[in-house]
Design goal:
The chain is an alpha/beta fold and 996 residues long. Helix content is 25%, strand content 26%.
Length: 996
């Protein structure tokens, strides 16, 4: 009892002594406590790699003053013997919104959007909120703090999770008693994310590529602003400038987004700490090459409930595989030398933190690395290694006291000290009362068995006649509370017992009967508790499925490499003056077409018998929208020339593999048609398994998407109040004229500035006008979405006024009406084979459109604009034969050489010519036949699709799926939580697709 009172006194005393020295004190005398608290005989982890046995930890005034084996204990010390206990630095989570309420918006989708900001004195885009500071809205949350303290955390970083530039974060100690000491650093981090602010209905940006463009423009504006070029104040940019030296944290929430954020960091010489998502292992090589530090969550997906075989068919193999592989993420990162801290972010509840971490350790994550990721690494990331993350002298006295090794499932966390303030998780002084007792209450005797765990004992009571007595039992701070319930549940004659544990061998206290009478009770231990040896074998982790490239169905076990291939005796469609050759060989070597002819040989080549088969150059889709992440349209402005599809190529899209199965080797990924001036395009080679940047066609010509017609004037958007200019077709013409003129003047201002030795105030770098100036300077080419002849003529007239030409009209379904004018202008046509009447402005479309334009002398291509059609473009080409009596050879060029010409890459691809890229397709039959199948699709000499291997992959997918279903059924049988199977609705993009 005396010890209990002493510990209570110390807790109150230590709390009182931590008040600010200059604060008035009216509750007691004002003494400044200079006593030390000393923890002796403990195993102490000063850092994850510095361990002291039988060590001493000396703290004073919330700081560590000494630690070691030979620490001199001052006279004015409170000594606590921790023999058999272990001390660790408390954990740090640098990515939370602890104490900061997450902003909530009430805007309804795209209805009544705001196009121009109404904020004065701040940045023009309302998702740039860099002027905000987390400490200004911070309110310490005791309830949440206790959850974190129980999990071992002592310090957290917190910020306002809203917007693209989110403002600064604050570093907080989880000190539940001293408010004045809780904030360690009011500004420690500067936060960014690929998320719009929920507090604005500003339309821009509406897409991921828009967010990336906005970030680029923001940094360019920041540089321009810092040099004193602006005539007005911008509080957002001033805050960005003031916070440049803070730790810059970017929440990417996906492996590919991490690569995107890293790309921006490289462009502007930044050093982002990337907050990831847990799927980094799927692109570990690229993640490692970012050289970035990461913050990684350990929120693992639950197994799917696959007990219903029909519902389980809705779950994609990639999702099943991710469930299986996710626990290995930390091990993979650590094994590859990626520096990372851990976070509780995305956990459903904080209590899941330890089980998930132990799961990762069970899957191979090193325990020392785990401790580093929770202590020294986050401290180093924040530049606070001298204050937190270790128990070195001078650091805050932030530590936990445990019963043993911290990452052992049975280890008990007793106390968590934050800045020298104790928080009790489990009573360290609790006596182990487990065992068998003879219980006496007045004249009644019972048999009493106490078992369970030391921190959570369980009670079982029987009469001398072995009748079970219902009871409720608890122990807190060595106080026993026991209630005996009557056998008859209707009656309420309870007997209540309380008592303080002095000695576990003999328990005693007072009993209060149902009538209110008090009696003494006692319990004498008859035998000590004997732990039942756990004979169950340690649970083995699931067998992990191999990671593939990409890590989805039909991915490859390793990245593919180029081969030397010799095709013998094929029918070869050269697309050159030689035409179609029979019984001809094709040699592919070093990624190029090495030879085309008869009787070829190469000692190092793999020989393929192609007799009766056809070989062509790869199909080129001039107009595609597959493999694009989070938005094909940036519809927030009427001109978005600053955005580029190159930023958002999705290398994991299964449509890539499907295109390869249809013989497509190259596509131009175009921005949609939501605005007159859209974004820049990406020309890609479909290298299945490669990273997004590797898919980009090297040194590709510059293209941009323009659009005419219904889409750009919001006629079919389905919004209540369309207000964005233009709202008419004649307004579209004015948009073009206005932007071309402004871009011309912008270009001239820069030329004048550069010619004047760059003296005076520099013009502002405007990515949008810079891009449009490239068009005027004939450095970038227009692909224009078009239907109606009047608008086609309009755009040609406008561009001619500015002395350049449209490169390509795409769709161009009324091109047959103005083919002569198009020929005169010098524009090409990329059209549909036989689409018509699917909306009003295409009512005049005819299937003879392509052949008519071709016969007029235009370069004509057929495109897909559709994920399904893109893998059947060989059949689309055949329709030129059907409707226009075009020769098979010329019709085939509609999907190969002609799109290459329109894209200005026909010097490298589009035909089978020696020296060109080895983008080659082997067909089972005439490629224009509906019976033709692709047997091999080759890009740069690498076989990315093989019909025989495809069959093997299908069998392997089925086998893997069966294994994973078995593992998930085992999870459910073990009582683990599961999630309902649900089909993921994948959005297939078209020109008019808008993000919600």
């Amino acid at each position: 009892m005396k010890k209990a009172l002493l510990m209570f006194f110390l807790t109150v005393f230590l709390t009182k002594m931590q008040a600010q020295s200059y604060f008035p004190v009216n509750e007691s005398v004002q003494n400044k406590n200079k006593n030390y608290t000393v923890f002796t005989n403990a195993t102490i982890y000063v850092t994850p790699t510095q361990k002291i046995e039988k060590g001493t930890l000396l703290i004073q005034d919330g700081k560590v003053t000494a630690v070691g084996n030979a620490v001199t204990i001052p006279k004015n010390s409170i000594v606590i013997n921790l023999e058999g206990k272990t001390i660790y630095p408390s954990f740090i989570d640098i990515y939370t919104n602890f104490g900061i309420e997450k902003p909530k918006g009430n805007f309804n989708g795209r209805n009544n959007p705001l196009y121009d900001t109404k904020r004065a004195g701040y940045y023009w885009n309302e998702s740039i909120r860099s002027e905000l500071n987390g400490y200004e809205t911070f309110k310490y949350d005791n309830v949440k703090a206790e959850e974190l303290l129980k999990a071992g955390f002592g310090v957290v970083g917190t910020h306002i999770p809203d917007g693209i530039a989110q403002g600064t974060g604050v570093l907080v100690a989880l000190n539940n008693t001293e408010n004045s000491k809780q904030i360690i650093a009011s500004k420690i981090t500067n936060h960014f994310a690929f998320t719009k602010s929920v507090l604005t209905n500003q339309a821009y940006p509406s897409s991921l590529m828009g967010m990336m463009a906005l970030l680029r423009q923001m940094y360019l504006d920041l540089d321009w602003y810092k040099k004193g070029n602006s005539e007005t104040k911008d509080l957002s940019l001033e805050a960005l400038a003031a916070n440049e030296k803070l730790v810059q944290i970017f929440a990417t929430e996906d492996k590919l987004n991490s690569l995107r954020a890293s790309k921006i960091a490289k462009e502007f010489g930044l050093n982002y700490v990337l907050k990831g998502s847990g799927n980094e292992f799927e692109r570990i090589e690229e993640i490692k090459n970012t050289n970035a530090k990461f913050i990684i969550p350990i929120s693992f997906p639950e197994a799917y409930d696959v007990s219903n075989p029909y519902l389980s068919n809705q779950v994609e193999l990639a999702d099943m595989r991710f469930w299986n592989q996710a626990p290995t993420n930390l091990k993979v990162l650590a094994d590859n030398g990626v520096t990372f801290a851990l976070t509780t972010d995305k956990l459903k509840k904080i209590e899941d933190f330890k089980p998930n971490l132990l799961k990762a350790i069970n899957y191979g994550f090193d325990k020392t690395k785990a401790l580093e990721a929770l202590t020294t690494i986050p401290a180093a990331i924040l530049g606070k290694s001298n204050e937190v993350g270790s128990l070195k002298a001078g650091s805050y006295a932030n530590f936990v006291i445990t019963s043993g090794e911290i990452f052992d499932e049975k280890t008990v966390l007793f106390e968590n000290w934050a800045q020298g303030t104790k928080y009790i998780v489990n009573d360290i002084n609790a006596k182990d009362i487990r065992g068998n007792y003879d219980l006496t209450i007045g004249n009644d005797t019972y048999k009493w068995k106490i078992d369970g765990t030391e921190t959570a004992p369980k009670s079982e009571i029987t009469t001398v006649a072995d009748a079970k007595v219902t009871n409720t039992f608890s122990v807190s701070k060595n106080w026993i509370s026991l209630v005996l319930k009557p056998a008859d549940t209707i009656k309420s004659n309870f007997t209540r017992l309380t008592g303080f544990v002095e000695k576990p061998e003999i328990l005693s206290g007072k009993a209060v009967l149902a009538n209110g009478n008090e009696l003494n009770w006692s319990a004498k231990r008859t035998s000590a508790f004997v732990a039942v040896k756990d004979t169950a074998k340690a649970e083995k982790p699931n067998v992990i499925m191999p990671t593939t490239y990409p890590n989805v169905a039909f991915g490859d076990a390793k990245k593919l490499t180029a081969q030397t291939l010799l095709f013998k005796n094929a029918t070869v469609w050269t697309n050159e003056k030689d035409g179609i050759l029979t019984e001809t060989d094709v040699l592919i070597k070093n990624g190029k077409i090495a030879a085309v002819g008869k009787n070829l040989s190469d000692a190092g080549a793999t020989v393929i018998d192609a007799k009766g088969k056809h070989i062509t150059s790869g199909i080129i889709d001039e107009h595609s929208h597959i493999a694009i992440s989070k938005g094909v349209n940036e519809m927030g402005h009427n001109s978005t020339a600053e955005v580029t599809i190159q930023d958002v190529v999705n290398s994991e899209d299964i449509n890539i593999y499907r295109d390869l199965a249809g013989g497509v080797t190259i596509s131009q990924l175009l921005h949609g048609s939501a605005n007159p001036i859209g974004g820049r395009s990406a020309i890609v080679k479909w290298k299945w398994g490669a990273a997004p940047e590797e898919l980009l066609y090297k040194n590709q010509p510059k293209f941009i998407k323009f659009a005419l017609g219904e889409n750009v004037k919001q006629a079919n958007w389905g919004i209540q109040n369309p207000t964005r200019f233009p709202q008419t077709r004649m307004g579209v013409e004015q948009v073009f004229t206005d932007y071309f003129q402004r871009a011309k003047e912008y270009d001239e201002s820069w030329k004048a500035f550069n010619a004047g030795s760059k003296k005076g105030k520099a013009p502002r770098v405007d990515l949008e006008l810079q891009t449009i100036a490239e068009i005027i300077n004939k450095e970038r080419f227009i692909t224009c979405h078009s239907y109606v002849e009047s608008e086609i003529l309009m755009l040609m007239n406008v561009t001619e006024k500015f002395n350049f030409r449209v490169n390509t009209f795409t769709h161009i379904l009324e091109g047959y009406k103005v083919a002569d004018k198009m020929k005169e202008h010098g524009v090409g046509a990329s059209t549909f084979s036989d689409w018509w009447a699917y909306k009003f402005e295409v009512n005049d479309a005819i299937p003879f459109n392509g052949p008519i334009m071709h016969n007029q002398g235009l370069v004509v291509a057929y495109n897909s604009d559709d994920a399904e059609m893109s893998r059947r473009l060989n059949q689309e080409a055949a329709k030129a034969v059907k409707y226009g009596n075009i020769s098979e050879e010329e019709a085939w060029k509609f999907v190969t050489l002609n799109p290459a010409k329109l894209l200005h890459i026909d010097d490298k691809v589009g035909s089978l010519k020696v020296g060109k890229d080895a983008d080659v397709v082997l067909w089972s039959d005439n490629p224009l036949s509906i019976y033709a199948k692709v047997e091999k699709t080759i890009i740069d000499g690498v076989v990315y699709f093989d019909l025989e291997k495809d069959a093997q992959k299908q069998l392997a997918n089925d086998k893997e799926r069966s294994i994973l279903i078995g593992q998930m059924l085992q999870e459910k049988n073990k009582g683990m939580s599961t999630q309902k199977p649900a089909r993921k609705e994948k959005k297939e993009y078209h020109c008019d697709t808008l993000e919600q």
